[in-house]
Design brief:
single chain, MetI-like fold, mainly alpha, 0% strand
Amino acid sequence: MAYSWTKGSEKSLDQDVAVLSSSRRTYRGYVPWVAAALAVLIWWEITALHLVSAVALPSPVAVFHDLVATATVGYSGQTLLNSTLFSLGRISVGFVLAVLVGIPIGFWMATTEWVFLIIDPFLQFLRPIPPLAYIPLMVAWFGIGELPKVILIFFCTIPIIIISAMSGVKNVQESRRRVAECLGANRWQMFRYVVLPSALPEVFTGMRVGIGVAWTCLVAAEMIAASKGLGWMIQAAGGELQIGVVFVGIIMIGLLGYGMELGIRTLEHKMVPWKGKA
């Protein structure tokens, strides 16, 4: 009887945990939507009460109309889809290149002292320089085509990727290294089964920070030296006081950035399922 009661209690406890986990997932799914709806409601109230001029802050309905217009008719000869695709193409190429180049460099700097001593001074010198400072050079060297925008995104994002990769390798626990050495792991096995899994959480953190920097660089470049893209649309609409179109561009950038962040986060959960559990 005692055994039966104990097993039944364990089963009941498992069921309770499953219910709590399901409730938590439901709660986490609803909260962002409720917060967004509340923000739109506050926005609508401010415009309905005429607390701010309609020119400076159009209502959500007016912005929705501008969204439909830019998506169907377009703005200054470019539809919203075209502008979005141009921006996505530029940021995807620049960001992926920064990740592909930055991670190996960061790992190399963390494991080879002379490489660190050569690259780190340049890295620390270039890192604080804002993206806007590079734009005149990019335009003078490469013109106003696609190449300077991709290079700008790459150039401003790669320091974050390098530093996160280097930090991840340096923070590998020494006890894990020693256990692997005692088990006879060679250099490749040490990297594959100890260093890389330990460094991946910080690498993904750097990627999530880097995607925000990449969008900042892209919009800055498109606002100054472009004839297509979301940043260009925002700049052109702002010059004509089409604030509704400006809001459309801002909302699109926010949604795309959030979507890319969720994509990186999902990839992180699949590749680093042990994060936060150790």
